[in-house]
TrEMBL record:
Residue ranges occupied by any YbaK/aminoacyl-tRNA synthetase-associated domain in the UniProt entry: 24-141
A Pfam family the protein falls into: tRNA_edit
A GO molecular function held by the record: aminoacyl-tRNA deacylase activity
Official protein name in the record: Ala-tRNA(Pro) deacylase
Amino acid sequence: MTIARKLQHYIETEGIDYDTVPHHRTATTSQTAEAAHVPGNRLAKSVVVHHEMGYVLAVVPATHRVELSTLQDVMNRRLGLASEEEVSTLFNDCEIGAVPPIGSAYGVPVILDESLDKANDIYFEGGDHRTLVHMSGSSFRNLTRDAQVARFSHSG
């Protein structure tokens, strides 16, 4: 697999320039950053959460962890982590754990941690555990332009 079909179609439809960074299969985003030789604070990690009205993609740097209680406060909703089954239904052309942060390609709203809002360039999983997508920060912000931006993560 290279990048997921829905993701590739969406990025190309939006006219965004990107490249891909192949790496050996990894199990965690910190391993991915190391394997691909990219800074962890520029590798966007997606966490799928659910609430009574549906799903949200919480996007943070690979070096950060989502503070679920803070995210609940920001969104004013009770949240929980989506199950693997829910994730595989929403992102049916992606491997589990390799969800891209471009929720609009899948009809899933995004909340973006403010620590990613100023990065010059961004890397993210393209739908498998062997390929990162790389693009400029401005292109990434264009693709996530409908996202709510807030602080809901901490490093560690």
